[in-house]
Structure prediction request, 703 residues.
Amino acid sequence: MVSANYSGRIIPIHPSADEILGHKAYPSLEAFPGEIDLAIVCTAAATVPAMIEQCGRKGVKGAILLAGGFSEASAAGAVLEREVVEVARRYGVRLIGPNTSGMFSARLGCNASGWFNIPKGPLALLSNSANVLLSLLAEIQFAGNTGISMMLSVGNQADIQFHEYLDFAGQDPDTKAVGMYIEGFKNGPAFMQTARHVARSKPIVMYVAGRSDEGKGAAKSHSGSLAGDYAVSRGVLRQSGVTLVTQSDHLQPVCDALSLFPPMRGRRVAVVSEGGGPITMAAEAIAGQGLILAELSAETQAAIHAVVPAASAISNPVDAGGGTDPRVEYYGAIAKAILEDPNIDGLLFVGYFGGYTTRYDDSVAEAEQAVCRDLGVLMRRHGKPIMVQTHYAHFKPSSLAVLREAGIPHHRHIEIAVQCLAAAADYGQAKRRLDADAAASSSVKASAAAQTLIEAAMAEERDLLETEARQILADYGISVPESVLMRRPGDADIAAAHFGNTAVAAKIVSKDILHKSEAGGVKLNLMGADALRNVYAQIAANAEAYRPGADVAGVLVTPMAASGVELIIGVTNDPQYGPVIMCGLGGIFVEVIRDVVFRALPLSRADAREMLAELRYRAILDGVRGAPAADTESVEDLLMKVSQLAAAHPGLAEIDLNPVIVHSKGYSVVDARMILSPGPHGGLDEAERLAGANTPTLEQMSR
Prediction:
C-alpha cells in the first residue's frame, strides 16, 4: 500500500505496535477516532467472525478476508463462512473473499495484493485463483507493454460475486478489457446478464476450468466452487458475449490485443511476410481458428506488385521475399493497399517485421519505426485490426516499443498471434449479435391448454405422458406426426384404417415406464390390424414383466418417419446457469461422438443459428454421400419454439426430443418426453431414472 502511493490514509491495527512503516498504529478498530472504509483482515479463519463484528460496529463499509479454511476446506469451514456472512449482512459490511490474495485498484493506488510494482494500464483481471492471477501479473510485468486497472482474486465469493466485480469493471473508464480465470459461479444467471451488458462495450476474455472430470475435482477442492459442465459453460458464456480461450498462455495476450483492436467486421485475414515458412504456419493456424484467407482484389494485387515487383506471391498470403530485405519501408505501402481492400477484415504480419534492427543494424531503425507509427494510424483509420508476429519479440528492439505506442500488439508465436485475431472476429460477431438481441424484444404467452395438462400431471405427481407431451408441442406450433392411441386391443382396427398401407411404429404409453425401448415397449415397421393387435398384447406383456402392475394408458401408433439426419433437442436445468437448451447429433451419433451444443434460455434466432453452426460435424447436415441437405431453417424454428415453450412453463424441468429426424424439407419429432421435476414419479426412483436409459443424460452427452 505504501509503495503504490495509496492516495487515502493507511491505519495499521496491531495489539502492541505503536507505529508501522511510519504510520501510527492503533490497538483496535474502536481505538481509531475516525471512519474506516476498508478493512484488510489478515487473521486466522476462526477469528474472522469477531473481526467482522468489530468492523460492523465501527461502520466499516467493506472487508478483504485473506484467510483460508472456509468452504473450500471442509464442511466445518462452510459453516464458519456462513457465520461470517450473516454477521456482515447484519451490519451491511461487504466482503471480498474469504480465501483471497486481496485486490489492486490503480485509480487510488490501492495495492492490497501483496505484490510490488504493479504496472497501471487498461486490463481488469478477475480470478478464482490467486496463483493464476499472480501468473498473469508476472507475464504482464515481464512483457512490459501493458498494465492493470484493477485486479482481484474473488476467493470463495461468500458475499461479493463475479457478476458484481464485472459490473464495476464495465463501468470503470480506465478498464478497456476484462480477463478472467473461472472455476465456478455462485450465480450463473446474474453473471450472464451482466456479461451481456458489459460485452457490448468491452471485451471479456475468459479461461474456464472444468473441461475434464479431473479439472472439475481440482476446482472444487481448490476454491469451493462447483465447476459446471464445460460444454454448457462454453455455450452459455459465448451466448453472453464472452470470448473464450482454451490455453492459459492465450488469456493475457488475447485480452491485451482486444483492448487495442477495433471491432473486427468479419473473419477474412490477409497475411504478409518475407518468407514462405512463416506463411505456411500462419495459414495452418488461420484455418484451425476458423478464419479465412480471402483473395485480395485485382486492384490490391496490382498495388502490391507496384511496390514489390519481385514479390513471390501477392494474392494472399503476400510473400514479399526479396523485396523487403532490408527495405522495411515497403511494409507500410503494402499494409495500406491491403487495408483499403473491402475483402479484408484484418491484417497479420509474420516473420522479421519489428526486428529489422536486430537482424540487420540501426541503419533501418528510422524506416522501420516510421512504418510502425503509420500502422497505428492505418488501423484506426480503416477500423481493421493489425497483429504482428515477430521472431525478435524477446529481444525487445526499439521498433516494437514504437509499434506498441502506436497501439499495435505483437507476439513471438504465430499461433498466439492468430488466436488474437480469431478472438477479435469472435468478439465482433458477439457484439453484433448482442446489439441485435437488445433491439429485439419478444414475450411468449403461455398456452392455457398446455398449462392445464402440466398442472394435472403435477397434481397426480407424475411426468407427462407422451400423448400429453405431443399435444403441448402442437400447442406451440411444433410439427408432430399424426398418431392414434390404442387404449385396448380392439382399437387396432381404428388405427389400421387410419394409416392404411403406411408402415407404423407402436410405443407404450405409461406413467410408470420412462424408458420404452428398455421395457420392450417399442415395435417398428408394422402394418395392418392383425399386426397391431398382436403388438398391443406383446407390449402389454413386456410392460408387466418389466414393471408388474404398471399403469398402461395404451399404445401409441405413429407413421414411420422418413430417413434423414437424426438430432436430439432437449431442455434441462443446469446447476449454475439455470434452464439451458441443447442441440446435437442424435441416434447413434449421440453415443459415438457426443456432438452437442448448449445455450441458455430464452433463445434468439441468432443463438439457434449459431448452435447448428458450432456442431463439430455440421457437414452432416449439408448432405454426405449423395444425401440431400437437411432443412436447417426448420431446425432453427424448432429450437425457437422449444425455447418459448420451456420459458412459458417453468414447471417443466426437462424436455427431451430424441430423435428429431431432419429431412430435406421439415422434420419429424419421433419421440418426446417432458419431466416435471427431478424427483421420482409413479414409483420410479432416481437410480432407475438414470440407469439403463436408451440415450445418455444431457450431462453425459455434453461430456
In short: The chain is about 40% helix and 20% strand. The chain has five domains: 35-96, 116-260, 269-438, 482-559, 565-702. The first strand starts at residue 19 and ends at 20.
